[in-house]
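Figure S4 source data
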Amino acid sequence: MLARFTALYPVWIVASSVLGLLHPPALVWFTGPWVVWALTVVMLSMGLTLTLDDFRRLRQSPGAIGLGFALQYTVMPLSGWLVAKLCALPPELAVGLILVASCPGGTASNLITYLARANVALSVVMTMASTLLAFVMTPLWCKALAGHYVPVDALGLSLSTLQIVVVPVLVGVLCNWRFPRQVGAVVRFSPAVAVVAIIFIAGSIVAQSASSVLAHAGKVALAVLLVHLLGFGLGYWFARRLGFSAIAARTISIEVGMQNGGMAAVLARKHFAAQPLAAIPAVFSSVIQTLVGSLLAACWSRTAEAKSADPR
């Protein structure tokens, strides 16, 4: 039951967004500290699923991890900036798109990797690596690419990322190490709890800018789709060109193409409060990246099945 609920999280995000759009008072109250604590819960949930063995795996595939990290923090931010220019997005939406593209990989990438029959362990380690260093990379890219749209407080972004992203993950890992039995008893609930938190974050963002969401929905959806397509496509292309196996390339593609939309939404609300539309691309990203990733996973999974069934 919990697994089914978690797997359907794109549906719940769409539902909460529609609710926020049609009846803003239902979710407009979920703001400020509520949003920050919700993302903290999401990242803590991620940390509870990680073990010290995941860190040890960093030594097993340094090339793939390094490439995934490099592409995550080059292809995606530059794609966000380029697409914002090509689509002539208003400054608020451009900042939001660049922020989404400058965030680390999202935990949903691990599920999509599993469905695609790629390397889940590698996916988990790449997500962990990009998340733990997000407090440096995300502010730097936002300052470099979005700074000409609006003032960017790089130090503030860095401190917020440490507080609401990195620290909860490390606390979760520490709890899993020191109290494995207790964590084991609750960890099966953590994905569902994280999904509920993301549902509220997405719905509240739409509720607080309902009319603006309707006015810019088409352009934002197209821009977000292009950014994620570039991430998936270039992630796979670079990996194959550099000699990585198809399985590793699929894993890198998914990791590069999928972002932590919840983190982007919270940082937008916290640091770009004067630009309320800046959080909107994060909501579209959460849905679109999952749909594209799911289609890719279905395609790659069928390819893997066909190869395993081929007797030659």
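Figure S5 source data
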Amino acid sequence: MTGMSFTEFYSETEVLAAVPRLTPLRLSGFIEARIVLPLTKDNRAAFRRIDLARIELLCDLTEEFELDDDGLGLVLSLVDQLHEARRDLRAICAALAIEPPEVRARIGGRLAAV
């Protein structure tokens, strides 16, 4: 499967079409505030699927909670930290799943005591 890319990129025009609530000015603001960090592909901004999800969330937070760029940055930083903690927890669970039953039982007992 060499040469195949599983990452789908979207142009600014495609992002604006995919997120109807998004205006070019708002998107520029998100980028300037470094809340959304598109990649550069062929000298143009290239957005990933995760960027689309972040932009949708940013629009929700802007419209429903009237957060400014600093507030948006803080909320997304916390969301990123939560995703990282969940990823770490999944890795720990996967590592524990391959341990012998007595090790899992001992760790489970210690966790229950905390």
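DSSP finds five helices and two strands in the chain. Residues 12-113 form a domain with the Multidrug-efflux Transporter Regulator; Chain: A; Domain 2 fold (CATH 1.10.1660).
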